[in-house]
Design goal:
Largest sheet: 6 strands, mixed
Radius of gyration: 19 Å
Strand content: 5-15%
Order of helices and strands: EHHEHHHHHHHHHEEEEH
Distance between the termini: 39 Å
Number of helices: 12
Shape: globular
Number of strands: 6
Helix content: 40-55%
Strand order of the largest sheet: 1-2-6-5-3-4
Length: 275
């Protein structure tokens, strides 16, 4: 059985194993890993199956969760799928993982189950005080395929909800973040319905998250996603923040990528960087 998130490995040891050659690319990657190793001692490989951006982000968020985010606490959170489906009939074409060919009437119940599961898991893990136990609870959750994939459906649905909000805000003349214009400027996602059909429905099936969707994920979770983009080492895009003007009170999770497609997670922040 393939682990969703592999055990820790020393970050430089991992780098030496992966990047042996003397090509410019290999040298750049080694330099990039050295820079990350100033801050983090270890790396955990994340399974690469088109869910890796969601998996890496959620794993990091839960590993360090000490409380439920405010948006998960709201009374009507569990009603979100019904409320959205009542307003937007096209959401019935949401593609549920591995359960194709089912009657469509049940889709809101199905997604409701997922968002409630997300809240339950987040609450349970955030209440664990002992860091070792917390980590064990996370590891255990990410070994349970049924639950894990249900959580990704919940995240994708929250991304859709956020996209609908941003789209409507923009239409009503409210200020929206710049990435929102970029998101809806694509030919393939000029409105939330297209975004669902051409992008969100494919995440985990035939594609991962594009950069502009990393912004959407960050907004949906109200987390800042900090990414070491190793192939951009020695440029000002080496460390990229989604969103790039984060809210003060959003927690930060850190990921590593070599190519903006596959994400791994750095762990064990070195002591001096924590002070």
């Amino acid at each position: 059985y393939k682990l969703s998130v592999a055990p820790e490995m020393d970050i430089m040891e991992y780098c030496r194993k992966e990047w042996r050659g003397s090509t410019p690319a290999a040298k750049r990657m080694r330099k990039g890993y050295e820079a990350v190793a100033q801050k983090f001692a270890s790396i955990r490989r994340v399974r690469g199956d088109n869910y890796c951006a969601l998996r890496a982000t959620l794993f990091q968020a839960l590993s360090q969760a000490t409380q439920l985010p405010s948006w998960l606490q709201s009374e009507d959170f569990a009603m979100l799928p019904e409320n959205l489906l009542r307003k937007y009939d096209w959401i019935k074409q949401w593609q549920l993982k591995q359960k194709l060919g089912r009657k469509m009437g049940e889709i809101s119940d199905e997604i409701k189950e997922y968002v409630i599961l997300l809240r339950k898991k987040w609450k349970n893990i955030s209440e664990i005080k002992d860091p070792i136990e917390k980590q064990e609870a996370c590891d255990k959750l990410f070994k349970n395929e049924e639950e894990e994939y249900s959580l990704y459906e919940a995240l994708k649905f929250l991304m859709l909800n956020t996209a609908i909000k941003l789209y409507n805000d923009d239409k009503n003349g409210r200020r929206v973040p710049v990435f929102s214009w970029l998101l809806f400027a694509r030919d393939t996602s000029s409105d939330p319905c297209q975004l669902m059909h051409n992008h969100l429905n494919h995440i985990g099936h035939s594609g991962g998250l594009e950069q502009v969707e990393m912004f959407l994920l960050a907004y949906a979770l109200q987390y800042t996603i900090q990414v070491y983009r190793l192939y951009k080492y020695s440029t000002d895009e080496f460390i990229t923040l989604y969103p790039n003007d984060p809210e003060e009170d959003w927690p930060v999770v850190t990921l590593i990528t070599e190519d903006d497609r596959h994400y791994n997670i750095p762990v064990r922040m070195c002591q001096e960087t924590m002070l």
